[in-house]
Amino acid sequence: MIQVTRAGARVDARENELSELGRRLRRDGFLKLPSFLEPALLGWAQDFLDHARFRVSQIFSYGRREAPIDQGLETALNFHLNDGDLLGAIGAIAGRPALSCNGKIRRHAAGRGHFLRWHDDLKGGDTTATISVNLNRVPFEGGLLEVKNVSTGRVRSVANLTPGDAVLIRVGPGIVHRNTPLKRGSPAKLTFTGAFFNYAVDLRGYGSPRRETVRA
Ligand SMILES: [Fe+2]
Q1: DSSP E strand stretches across the chain
Q2: What is the pLDDT of residues 136-146, one digit of tens each?
Q3: In a domain, 123, yes or no
Q4: In which domain, by residue range, is 55 found?
Q5: Could you tell me the distance, in angstroms and rounded to a whole number, from the CA of residue 130 to the centre of ligand 1?
């Protein structure tokens, strides 16, 4: 098990088990990480989100969704996901260094055009893997993750419906992913969506105003 707790990450997996997880990540384009957030940390995140106010956040050209105005939860989860043991495990699975994680809280709401088109998250080759953590208190419908191998055209579809579970997404040339819209009437989908990078990050600037275009 790979789990993020308030007391640090727990990685209960041997080296050969991590390489098996890596084989599955390369084969399928994604890897489910059950119970990735410990229940206490998940409950704390859900309590925060119950009272959060959101604003529209335009993500470059490939999609649209919402972000909480208060970045407290986002900052806390980034702290927890920059745990050295976790980064080591993710690097072993992905087969390249994971030296930092940078993620954001996102809300996808039904009927508001919230989805992401195909994109690769390569960011110049510095991304080791992408992760999405389910923070919902109530189940959502739709909002699937799809991963496509561009050369074969093969698409794998993943529903990450269990709160606290995470999906690690393969990043590499010729691999793209997207998020489908939620079904009409579905509760909103709340995630911590981040990327592991092959460089260390200076978190001192974290919490500074977002560079994304923001609409009221
Ligand atoms: Fe992505």
Answers
A1: 2-5, 8-11, 30-33, 54-59, 63-68, 100-108, 115-119, 127-134, 145-149, 155-158, 166-170, 175-179, 189-197, 213-215
A2: 999 999 999 99
A3: yes
A4: 30-201+210-215
A5: 7
Would residue 12 count as lying in a domain?
Answer: no
| Ligand 1 centroid from CA 211, angstroms | 17
Q: Distance, CA 43 to ligand 1 centroid (Å)?
A: 25
189 domain residue, yes or no: yes
Distance 172 CA to ligand 1 centre (A): 12
Domain total for the chain?
Answer: 1
**C-alpha 178 to ligand 1 mean position (Å):** 7
For residue 17, tell me if it sits in a domain.
no
Residues 54-102: tens digit of each pLDDT: 998 766 666 678 899 999 999 999 999 999 999 999 999 999 999 999 9
pTM of the model: 0.90
